[in-house]
Amino acid sequence: MKYIVLLYDGMSDYPVEALGRKTPMELAKKPFLDKLASLSEVGLVKTVADGLKPGSDIANMSVLGYNPKENYTGRSPLEAVSIGAPMLDTDIIFRCNTVTLSDDNNYENKTMVDYSAGDISTKDAKEIIKTVQEHFGNEVFKFYSGVSYRHCLVWHNGTLDLGDLVPPHDITGKTISEYLSKSENAKALINMMKESYDLLVSHPINLRRICEGKRPANSIWLWGEGTKPSLPSFYEKYGLKASVISAVDLLKGIAGCADMCAPHVEGATGYIDTNFEGKAQKALEELKDGKDLVYIHIEAPDECGHRNEPENKVRSIELIDEKVLKLLIDGLEIYDDYKILALPDHPTPIATMTHASDPVPYMIYHKGNPKPNAVTTFTEKTAKETGVFIEYGHTLMEHFIND
User: Is residue 47 classed exposed, middle or buried when 0-12, 13-18 and 19+ CB atoms within 10 A define those classes?
Assistant: First the structure.
């Protein structure tokens, strides 16, 4: 038996005015996904437990079968594992975004223009973080560069008592003053953020980006604090050799903590320009090389939701159908039996441009035991109409594998 989890990050949504009051899932042409759904178990699953924030960290950990209330120590530590940042038990780790802020005089009056600095390239961002480390780095604080706008800060012997450090993708278009922690313990972090603007506004990389019509990475933004993570081995938990295919450090970090492989895919960006076919092909290669389960994480729908790009969100779903799912279905036919689990991790509604905690649609297709049903298209509405509901998201993986 072979297993594929196809994770459409942030795919589910609310009806969108610009899409004729339809959701991206309803409007997208996805014949392969819809065909599988008509032969699958279809329902809703609550991937974000009550009391937890609807981040991709919580939701993906849940889908992978780990109870976040027992295993979660913060988002950034998971990303730091992928980046290769050394961590001690007494360290506090932060996500460090390179962001674009408006040019208002006072830092507090600036607006969050872009949480990703125009989806800055990893090459450009590496130079920005190098400058940040040279300026702020010392025996207490150390910065590590990651992929695109996603980086990490390690604070040796730090504290988690910091007030509210808000994710930058939650405040796009908003003045940042009320989202800067007022905690005395966070003062050093906020001061670094403020000083980083003066440091980076005239950085050669940013001057070049402006000339090219791109957004500058003119500030850092610190959030997502946590401590050194520890997860049980996926193999020990489920008896399956597994891999994670993803462009982002968060998922690669979860994989590293769970002793899952995380092979590199050339051209995987985390956005709609990602190498969709490359992810599918790598997944099939991993199965041929002896893996039992491959978890394919595709970030594009989530990024389109954060950027208020409804047409691109629709297109990202269509591209996954055309360039990933079709290849997977064809490639899996060499096996006597296989299962496919397809779902979002959480909604990323266009209307709010951030994550939501609503239950998400899921479908489980089993080649050896198809389940014909009345579902003709896989959407939020049709999944709800089946009446099937899994209350605890971390139980879905066990259900997928063993039922």
Answer: buried
Task: Identify the domain containing residue 172 by its residue range.
Answer: 82-226
The reply to whether 100 and 197 lie within a common domain is yes
Per-residue pLDDT tens digits for 189-221 = 999 999 999 999 999 999 999 999 999 999 999
Give the pLDDT confidence of 30-47 residue by residue, as tens digits.
999 999 999 999 999 999
Distances in Å between the alpha carbon of 251 and those of 28, 55, 137, 330, 350? Answer: 26, 12, 26, 26, 23
Structure tokens at 399: 């259900």
Q: Are 160 and 89 contacting, i.e. CB atoms less than 8 angstroms apart? A: no
Boundary (domain end) residue, out of 193, 211, 226: 226
What is the bridge-based pairing of β-strands 389-390 and 360-366?
Answer: unpaired
Judgement on whether residues 52 and 164 belong to the same structural domain of the protein: no
Q: How confident is the model at residue 230 (pLDDT cuts 50, 70, 90)?
A: confident
Can you tell me the distance from the alpha carbon of 25 to that of 316, in angstroms, rounded to the nearest whole number?
10
Q: Tell me, what's the pLDDT at 327?
A: 98
Query: What separation in angstroms does the CA of 83 have from each of 107, 146, 248?
Result: 29, 6, 10
Residues 166 and 205 in one domain: yes
Last residue of a domain, one of 173, 202, 226: 226
Whether residues 126 and 218 share a domain: the answer is: yes
Question: What pTM, to 2 d.p., does this model score?
Answer: 0.86
Strand pairing of 41-45 and 293-298? unpaired
Domain count for the chain: 2
The rounded distance, in Å, linking the Cα atoms of 218 and 114 is 10
Q: What is the pLDDT of residues 58-116, one digit of tens each?
A: 999 999 999 999 999 988 999 999 999 999 999 999 999 999 999 998 999 999 999 99
Burial degree of 113 (CB within 10 A; 0-12, 13-18, 19+): middle
- Rounded to the nearest 10°, the torsion over CA 4, 316, 347, 43 is -50
